[in-house]
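Re: the 246-residue chain
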Amino acid sequence: MSDRFYLQDEPKGETITISGPEAKHLATVLRAKVGDPVVCFDGKGKEYQTAILSIRGKTIELKLLSVEEVNREEATAIHLAVSLPKGDRQRYLIEKAVEIGVTSLTPLITERSVAQPTDKAWQRLERFVIEASKQCGRTRLMPIHSPVTWPKFAESQQEVNPQQTRLFAHPYGSESHLDWKKLDFEKEFHIAIGPEGGFSEAEYQQALDAGWQAISLGPRILRVETAAVAAAVQIQTAAAIFKHPR
């Protein structure tokens, strides 16, 4: 059984109880039986090898066999700040960010933003993170931070960690060409993606004033979710080439 299951709480003893959607999926969709092996993770870096002890309605008890610290995170931390797209495109954005190993995601409020998550939508985004983590094998959940306005975020990152590399996607910026060889991939990266239509001219200037560097993602205009994935993968690829050159 290759499916992985998320534990909200760290096990306290030799048995683990699963209930709710996770138990339902295990019992009714996968048709699990007593004795079947089950892999669980806690979202904080630990992975648990277990076996099913009992199945009682919507509750499943597991026997803990072993626990291991498993690190499947990227060596270079990439924090995405994104003006969220609408509808199902949010799910695509979250899923792909988790799969490629983005460290964290912050929704941005910009002049041209089209979507702001309600409490219900927020829970849905967090569920997307869990589902994607189960599928791709990550043992740490990608945090989704509270929404923040672009001017506040742009300025605050300079105060929090002035040594980090701060980039924002802008198709027409005069500083669009980046020399990847000169970047320090031992540092954390923050990359900001604006809404449909891009950052306004005022927001563009705010970013430059706060020490952010504009980058181009190519000659074509990308959707928000495409731009976010493309930017993160560019950084990962450059890190693989230039961090420890052969």
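The longest helix spans residues 224-242.
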